[in-house]
Write a structure and sequence with these properties.
By secondary structure, this protein is of the alpha+beta class. It has two domains: about 110 residues, no CATH class; about 60 residues. The strands form two sheets. It has a four-stranded antiparallel sheet, covered by helices on one side. A two-stranded antiparallel sheet has the order 2-3. Strand 2 and strand 3 form a beta hairpin. The termini are far apart. The N terminus is likely disordered.
Amino acid sequence: MRWGSFRSCAHACTHGGEAVRAVQHVVRRGGVYWWRRRVCKKVGETERTTIAISMRTTNLGLARTIAAHLTHESERMMRRENGEMLSAEQTKAMLMSVARAHLAKLDRVAALEIADGVDAAEGRSSDLIMAWVKRLQGARGTFAKVEVGDRAAMRASGLSLDEIEEVDRTIAFLRDRGCRRRWPPRRREKRA
């Protein structure tokens, strides 16, 4: 497969006549969005490897959500404590599994929203908030915080001031919840 025909969405471009904001590691090929990233080489490999995963969507909003999740998971995999390097094939298989699981989750959430009577505006607001949470965590790690420049970008993407505060609260909640968990979990001692 030739990657030269991809159009990178990592810079501001136009999509259907409307300006598109930067999307990290996302390219468009033939109208379908792909997540593409170069990964560190494994010991013994001479070049960095590029991993490309089709997000199987032509919807930029959905591609943003999936890309943020994939970026977050790829960062987490690269920062693993033991420093073990995975091959490109192993990494791609793991990330494809993450993408499939995330798409299935989005389908379940949409079905639950319909069943609970959540209207489209509330669903869109919730999706944008969580997309920004994942985007910031993917770019900065678990201890991400909403910064001044982020607030301007969030306003430009259509978030209200209340929604921006919700992004900040959600990141703090996830960070606090993650800090309380021990990893690896303690093994229970067997009582004699």
